[in-house]
Amino acid sequence: MNENTPPVAAREHTVESFTREFLRELNFSQGVDLDRASDNDKYLALAKTVRHYLMTRWLETLRNQYTDQAKTVAYLSAEFLLGPQLENSMLAANLDSIAAESLRGLGIDIEELRGVEIEPGLGNGGLGRLAACFIDSLATLNVPSIGYGIRYEYGIFRQTFVDGKQVEKPDDWLRLGSPWEIAHPENAVEVHFGGHTKKAHGGAEGARAWLPDWHVMAVPYNYMVPGYRNGRVNTLRLWSAKATRAFDLQIFNEGDYEEAVRAQTFAENISKVIYPEDSTPQGKELRLQQQYFFVAASLRDFLTNVLPPDYPLENLPNRVTWQLNDTHPVIAVPELMRILIDERGWDWDKAWGITQQVFAYTCHTLLPEALEVWPTDLLGKLLPRHLEIIYQINDEFVDQVRAAYPGDELRVRRMSIVAEHPVRAVRMAHLATVAGFKVNGVAALHSKLLAEKLLVDFAQMWPEKFTNVTNGITPRRFVRLSNPGLSGLITEAIGDGWITDLDQLSRLEPLADDAEFRRRFREIKSSNKVRLAGVLAKRGDIELAGDGMVDAMVKRLHEYKRQSLKLLHIVSVYEGICSGRIPLDSVTPRTFVFGAKAAPGYVRAKETIELINAVGRTINADASLKGRLKVAFPANYNVTLAEVLIPAADLSEQISLAGKEASGTGNMKFALNGALTIGTDDGANVEIRKLVGDENFFLFGMDEPAAAALQASGYHPDEFYESDADLKAALDMIASGAFTGGDQGGAVTSIFADLTEHDRFMALADFRSYLDAQAKVEAAYADQDAWSRSAVLNVARSGFFSSDRSIRDYLDRIWKAKPIDQNA
Ligand code: GPK
Predict the structure, then answer these.
(1) Closest listed residue to residue 238, CA positions, set 214, 260, 222, 256
(2) Which residue numbers are catalytic?
(3) Is the CB of 682 under 6 A from ligand 1?
(4) What pTM was computed for the model?
(5) Do the domains 69-84+119-470+809-815 and 550-801 sit in the same CATH topology, yes or no?
(6) Could you report the predicted ipTM of this complex, rounded to two decimals?
(7) In the chain, N or C: fewer CB atoms in 10 Å?
């Protein structure tokens, strides 16, 4: 940086100049006067004002990126669940107080404007949110990096409830304007599909010509990714599909106007909507189109725009790591091979040698059904050249396996990238593992199980490829912004260094024994509950149980996560009260908060939502329980709501069957905001418990080996149903129609039957242990002072879960890229 360049936003870093900029935006960009401006006008003007302040640094970062040609992390992800942008941008640019003061001076309530913002829901859940936390940390750690993804015109659906049933509505997030993106149609790149291949004339040995039969344009939309007050503004580049003119011109010339418009729609469908399946891919052709679309555009962009012309691609491994966020972008592997061989004229071995050094793969699951598999019929139709390349990669790989394990044909079949049954199909996780120079899981237990179970053959063959990077969350958004009360208290105690160095939270540890500190901590928790109550009242007339315990289970609705186990607990308490087994005044006042979207085609998950709502309706309507028990299930849980809910929570429910949740990241957010966890020995819960201490964590249930053993020995849920009277009473109460107006059919029958007959994730086996742990929760909560001590210790000991630490681990273990300080 040259000496005359001002630090971030310093150019006009005053309330007066901010006000001037804001009014100018309002007048000249929105075209309205202040007294005529709508909240949306004011929001857009504010967003653009903030954007201006970051712009110089963005341009500078881009310039440096080009001149330095430093090693760059290119994070390829089909999802970036960004959450609202305004506050985070103001915070990063150090404009938060100036903006607030400026608007106050104009008589504008900045809180109101925040309420106008529609978050870009370009992700399903944990995986997409992780990508958003990671780009935040990459920027804050000064790592040259680019995020690449898809600009879906419709994000994850807006969930509504009609008679307690989930009804999905389109998420038209762009309808009121999108001030955080800058489109560059002039930089659009072509992406090809379909057709066939033939022998290339000339070119390298093995090169083929691909004659695609259709293509679309990928238009880049750039988003700023500001580091926290460090002068770096990285880029997130999301691609939007646009029909090419050539495409429809031909049809126009044939005189078919309607067909031409239809063709255009077809092309633009590619980035129309995010697939709402989390951990359960459906193998749809459009989904593969999306994947290739963004990956091809991103590789092209990097090779031609980020690298200088004539850059020697032999050097690529020193210049970039393409991090594959799950299997969604794995088609990048044959795409790079195709570019190197067919377009650049390299021979196969040289191309494969480089390809194997530039991709690394993150796996996010332990469920075999979550691993993407593409039928070769479909793949060959859409990407014929890529299928040929995959076959060749596989041929060589299979030879390698045979050489390493002579005679072990079963192993060859297990490991093959191409599966033969039930249909011939490409296993994308195998392709990623073969091509990637590293494969990582997302929590210690997950990485261990990946290497011992899901990808065991590969880990035996290449043990050094496998590593762990435990997930993390950004403390900027999930503590500093979402919990201003707690942030203030922490900063008062230890200064504000924790915001970028979360290990400093350990300095709070002695304060856990300071009664005054605990009192203030409790006060903040209560006012966060008041804030939550306000939001829930507005959002759907939802009431909390006074200022009682806030017990939260928020995550996608999935059987393995076991919302049904949580429901059995609630029903058991209610049944106990109704039957007189549990004296009402012994029950801890508490609100059970749920937040969960179900994939639209996932019937069991939708039935579970229906049943939770039915139980909630019954309990909430029972006047004798007022102030004592409530079930709060706000529709459409998203990042915006998470930021209000998590700071208010006392208890964090992390109750998946051990060995099924890869990591979890909500669990980290709750601990960092001073909620205690009730959880199984699963995913990152294991690491949380180790750090916060057993006495500050409510562990229950089978561990992974026990669960695996029970499964192997033949699990019979009916035995648990028959032998545990409380469990039986709870299940029978559901079956009786007590929550469904006497209706014993529908969701009631199918959930009852499923739990008592199959119960794939063994909720019944863990029920008793879960109830016991809940009893310990109640006992512990009765001593508020001791509880807050544990809560403070949870905060003090969870610094490890910063995504800054995750990114440092990725740098050390995988990327080997170096931070570059923009101010140096
Ligand atoms: C895992 F496989 C998938 C998926 O399709 N979507 C998704 O959100 C989650 N995940 C895991 O379920 C979580 O345990 C994990 O914390 C998160 O990815 C981020 O790694």
Answers:
(1) 222
(2) 364, 555-556, 561, 665, 669
(3) no
(4) 0.97
(5) yes
(6) 0.98
(7) C
